[in-house]
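ugh ok so i messed up the first submission bc i forgot one of the chains. this is the corrected input, ALL of the components this time, i swear. 830 residues overall. if the numbers dont match what u have on ur side tell me asap before i send this to the collaborators (the ones from the other lab, u know who)
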Amino acid sequence: MKTSISNIIDRYGNDPVRLMDILLDIQDEIGYIPEEINQKIADQVGISKAELVETVSFYHFFSDKPLGKYTVYLNNSVTAEMMGREKVKQTFEEEAGVTFGNVSSDGLIGLFDTSCIGMCDQEPAAIINGVVFNNLTPFRVKEIVNSMREGEAITEMFKQNYGDGNNSSELVKAVVSNNLRRKGPVIWDPYTPGEGLQKAVSMDPSQLIEEIKNSNLRGRGGAGFPTGLKWEFCTKAKETERYIFCNADEGEPGTFKDRVILTELPKMVFEGMAIAAYAVGAKQGVLYVRYEYKYLKKHLENALEELRKERLLGKNIAGKKGFDFDIRIQYGAGAYVCGEESALIESAEGKRGEPRDRPPFPVDKGYLGKPTIVNNVETLAKVTKILKNGSEWFNTLGTKESTGTKLMSISGDCRYPGVYEIEWGHSIYDILEMVGAEDVQAVQVGGPSGTLIGPNQLPRSLGYEDLGTGGALIIFSESRDLLKEVVMNYTEFFIEESCGSCSTCRNMPVLLRDKLQKILDGHGVVQDIDDLLEWSKTLKISRCGLGHTAANPIVTSILNFRHLYEKRVLRDREFETGFNLADSVRESCEAAGRTANI
Amino acid sequence: MSEKINFIIDGKECQSEEGKYLVDAAKENGIYIPTLCNYEGLKPKGSCRICTVKINGRFATACTSPVHDGMNIENETEELKDMRKQIIELLFVSGNHFCPACEKSGNCELQALAYRFKMMAPRFPFAFPNKEIDASHPKIIKDQNRCILCKRCIRGIKDEEGKSYFAYQNRGKDSLVVVDRKLAAEMTAEKAQQAMDICPVGSIIVREKGWDTPIGDRKYDKAPIGSDIENN
Ligand SMILES: Cc1cc2nc3c(=O)[nH]c(=O)nc-3n(C[C@H](O)[C@H](O)[C@H](O)COP(=O)(O)O)c2cc1C
Ligand code: SF4
Ligand code: SF4
Ligand code: FES
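and heres the new structure output, hopefully the right one now
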């Protein structure tokens, strides 16, 4: 062992708030977090062992068992399935001689599923020992497993060029592609670090907030809350120790635009954080990045370092006396719910990523109980541009209620999946034309938590007036089985990702899934469709957006594609238990140790 | 002194102090809002969702929402009553609750609420999950079959340094409330009794002691849950 456990914990001042970093480092060092050292970690940071396990057991990428010398996390999102995940998965199992969820008996290869890793435009993709492998095929899998048997270093297994842009830079060296298909007028307007911040410090903070309010910028993370208003609320909080958080958790399946911003323009985001800090008088910022983007760590740290050298972070920033602000990077460890702003804060405090009850809102009581602004990556990048070019300029783009542009992450059945910056107001129809999509059966707008719409709704337009979105569009052609391939996958996603706190969100999606399965198995009746709609309503009283939207795949597909359900249910009866006699006999014979003869 | 404010619950004019949690403010006015994860003296956690009301038309949990002047609150509507009943049903089908064999029967808040909401058979299918009984600690037994994951024990049962005897493990449908082995080894008899009392159901049971009070003489055998508030 290179570094002792107590040194690692010491590095973070034995502080339980830094538990995520401590656990990430220990996992890096040993490969997992052995049960035997839990008590030691707990004692050193001053919590009970059970409390430590609360955090460890919450996150997908923490493990109390060895994960293999090579650990494969194969994405199981809908687009991965559409692009041939099943064959890739089978090949991994055959070649490695072990099934998913396990480590080979020689300890060499561990195979695991994982929720969307933000690569939907280059699926099937996997993270192997922290490194992304995209566009996997059975052929490539065989090569990779062979290389593992030969003990090759992970980065020697690429056999392909590094990706475009900064993906091929010295500090990233990833095969990931940006697939930047359309450069729009906001994010990709020419950028020199500092221009926005210089403008900001020439105003006083209240003027600055006025400028953001005048731009009508709304949060790009999905909820669309007016950014200027959020900042103003923060200035009204009693406490003056304040924090700026940038949300780079990007967990909504089908969303990957924040990855491209962080790869190409990280300074624009950090500058936006500094502008926010100036507006509310914050001294410390945190960029919370999902674990899946760990390959960007050095690149992001380097950008921070350069900004410090350019005097755009640190002390007396941008020449303004007394304006001190710096940023630390906090990595997550695999939990979609950590994208919810209060869960994000809990996680950055070293705890389970469980959303908090509101009120109080983070702008009143956030990180360490202090007023905190949480903004999405794209929102903060736009802040920098609004300062540079002015709110009036921003208002000339988009529509009246939805000003500016939106970065769209587009994947699924289309010729050109990737990232597009477009002005608000385009119809879905326009967008499908833009990306080369034909034979469209359905479009998932906003990822699983959004809406599944059909061809008759293609004239609808993107914008807060109609279809507001965090930016994911997933396209399904006529050849797809929407209920089996899409709705089921999304429902499973919510079951996997629920934090488990609310009685509703912990239990109801499981019941909905089972009922959907009953219908898919041909045992459903009309009443089952109505039950799905009726039972879903109770999820609306859950604590956070995850629970509120967990039934959206089912509900919006029933509303817009009811015929697909009706086609599958039994019309000749009102009640059907779904009981499968053959299966049950087989099961009980197995339990009794007899061979079933059915 | 906090300032007095006025608000309305189901059309009834109520008074309380600004910022008080709505469950407590309602109680002062003789109105019962059912609770399960809430416990007097503990920071509310809003996990069971049963106290959900509508405040000015929007869902909110009464145990975590401070009351403000002019709020209009819906409590006993058909919609809310049915959602609450669904929660009780969800908790029944997701665990294994065999009341006649449970030490907590008659003192159990889940059972009492099921009576209040006139639950006959749950509308949801029983999951009959495979759950463990952890009888490895000297003073208590932790029966996972009955745990409704309300976190009252986690929030309420701590040692002198503030460390919790109980903790949440895993997430989503696999969530569990577990016992810290080291702390439990030194648990006093009083702490064990406190833990059992704080648990709304029979998931924490004190060892080697039971059936002190006969069935029929227990808390909710005598007066239905909420009746103390409503008849006040
Ligand atoms: C389950 C869940 C996941 C979320 N994930 C993200 C995310 O990955 N990135 C993000 O920016 N916002 C996410 N949000 C929204 C955040 O809670 C929050 O609204 C947002 O970060 C605010 O930033 P904005 O106003 O700039 O959009 C999520 C919300 C929920 C309920
Ligand atoms: S709604 Fe789901 S994810 Fe959100 S707090 Fe409740 S259990 Fe957790
Ligand atoms: S053991 Fe009891 S008090 Fe603790 S979470 Fe479970 S039901 Fe609640
Ligand atoms: S009592 Fe309010 S959520 Fe449980």
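quick check: The mean pLDDT of chain A is 96. that seems consistent at least. The first strand of chain A starts at residue 70 and ends at 75.
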